[in-house]
UniProtKB/TrEMBL annotation:
Protein species of origin: Streptomyces argyrophylli
Protein name: Lipoprotein
GO molecular function annotation: phosphoric diester hydrolase activity
Keywords: Signal
Tree of life domain: Bacteria
Gene3D superfamilies from the UniProt entry: Phosphatidylinositol (PI) phosphodiesterase
Lineage, broadest ranks: Bacteria, Bacillati, Actinomycetota, Actinomycetes, Kitasatosporales
Pfam family, one: PI-PLC-C1
Entry-linked CDD domains: PI-PLCc_SaPLC1_like
One GO BP annotation of this record: lipid metabolic process
Signal sequence, renumbered to the chain: 1-16
Family annotation (InterPro entries): PI-PLC-C1, PLC-like_Pdiesterase_TIM-brl
């Protein structure tokens, strides 16, 4: 029996030491807010997936955090106007980010011992700090809606380490069992932001600066998310992208699975330093499998393959798969 099946079968690893968050590989769902994937975001949470993705636009005109794939001024998503467990699975949808967070909080009351869920937030056009939609306001919104249900950068530091890089290299990540009931937010630059010739200060750098400054001010506990280095690279991509002052604040990395694997990149760098590596479009790794409806065996094989290539999370559009498949967790090499 494979490791993925073993970890999925033994609730909470009851008879074995729970592996650390950095020592496992799990499955996530791309654009989990899409109504074509799940009628309600609560169903995405029910799916068993270990990562769910939200696309967020800052709407500077109405001062709102919009959740949509392509409409920066409106909401188009499966998040509903539900703040309590009894309101889930039936309220009006197409709500803003605050409602998505409310749904998560309500669902968390129903499932207080759920495995950790990474919430990958793509900031489509980046932050707009001048309009009051910057990192501080993002932190405040998440903290107000989810409170102690968030595993934060300060939790990794634990009052012991000076930077996230120091903590990760010491493998200060908690055991998966210790993260029951927790959400872990990561932030990536958005596609619109990256193509904007007038914007060179992207989400990753802006939030990295934010973490550095919060730590210097003695207020790192306010931060609710981890910034992500986006794009598959061979070696440490932080060196060429960021000022030395913020490089140590990046311990999450995100890139195309096929680029890493099919090009033979040395991904051992990530597991050796206990960094979290998210590999996207997992279906495209050679030999390619379906992006929507692979067999259970194909998903298990792809999970095992990418675990051997040091991924922490693999993502695709496999929302139609059962919870027993999407909740699979295996040992990371």
């Amino acid at each position: 029996m494979g490791a993925a099946a073993l970890l999925a079968m033994v609730p909470g690893n009851a008879h074995a030491a729970s592996p650390k968050f950095s020592e496992t590989t799990a499955i996530g769902t791309h654009n989990a807010y899409d109504k074509a994937k799940y009628a309600y975001f609560a169903q995405a949470l029910d799916s068993g997936a270990s990562l769910l993705e939200l696309d967020v636009y800052v709407d500077s005109i109405s001062h709102r955090w919009r959740v949509s794939h392509s409409n920066p001024l409106g909401n188009d998503n499966n998040c509903e106007a539900a703040k309590t467990p009894g309101e889930l699975y039936g309220k009006s949808r197409n709500q803003d980010l605050g409602s998505c967070l409310d749904n998560m909080a309500a669902w968390n009351q129903l499932h207080p011992d759920h495995p950790p869920i990474v919430v990958k937030v793509e900031m489509k056009v980046g932050f707009n700090d001048k309009a009051g939609l910057g990192p501080d306001e993002f932190d405040t919104l998440v903290a107000q809606r989810l409170g102690g249900s968030v595993y934060k950068p300060a939790d990794l530091l634990g009052g012991t380490y000076g930077t996230l890089d120091e903590a990760a290299k010491a493998n200060a990540w908690p055991a998966r069992d210790a993260l029951k009931g927790k959400f872990v937010f990561d932030l990536i630059p958005g596609t619109v932001e990256q193509s904007n010739p007038f914007d060179s200060y992207w989400t990753d750098e802006e939030y990295g600066d934010h973490l550095r400054d919060l730590k210097a001010a003695g207020n790192i506990s306010a931060a609710q998310a981890f910034p992500v280095v986006l794009g598959a690279a061979n070696g440490d991509p932080r060196t060429s992208r960021y000022d030395a002052s913020i490089r140590p604040w990046f311990v999450f990395f995100d890139g195309d699975a096929a680029t890493y694997v099919d090009n033979g990149y040395d991904t051992s760098f990530y597991s050796a330093n206990h960094y979290i590596l998210i590999t996207t479009d997992a279906h495209n790794v050679s030999p390619a499998i379906s992006s929507t409806s692979p067999t259970d065996a194909e998903v298990a094989a792809r999970l095992a393959l990418l675990a051997k290539n040091h991924a922490s999370l693999i993502t695709s559009d496999w929302s139609a798969k059962s919870a027993s498949v999407l909740s699979s967790v295996t040992t990371r090499s």
